[in-house]
Design brief:
It is built from two helices and five strands, in the order αβββαββ.
């Protein structure tokens, strides 16, 4: 996926403030945060959205929630709580078509999404 910005970040070809990395996932700070702490978690392997998660192998699918929770813990969000969300498609306002999870916290978040 040479045109995918998140693939380029995962490969180290574009700069990002990486906060956690494994062989399968990368977490980095969102450049337009919607909360005091707003991280993005992506699989290294390109899949366009949650609808393509079956394209990830079983090990990736199993590790994904564990990696997300560890990312939140490392960011100091575990005690007060945090929100995890992903978008699928244009109507959900998905802007980058590479599966990514928003991990947001650091303050009382809005009741609306």
């Amino acid at each position: 996926m040479s045109q995918c910005i998140f693939c380029a970040i995962a490969a180290g070809d574009l700069p990002a403030e990486v906060v956690h990395r494994s062989e399968r996932f990368v977490a980095f700070r969102d450049i337009a945060p919607k909360a005091p702490v707003h991280l993005l978690v992506i699989p290294v392997q390109h899949v366009a959205s949650i609808a393509g998660a079956d394209g990830l192998d079983a090990a990736d699918r199993a590790e994904m929630p564990v990696f997300i929770a560890e990312t939140a813990r490392r960011a100091g969000l575990e005690d007060a709580g945090y929100r995890v969300a992903t978008n699928h498609g244009e109507h959900a306002r998905q802007a980058v078509f590479h599966l990514h999870w928003h991990v947001m916290g650091g303050a009382l978040l809005s009741e609306t999404m």
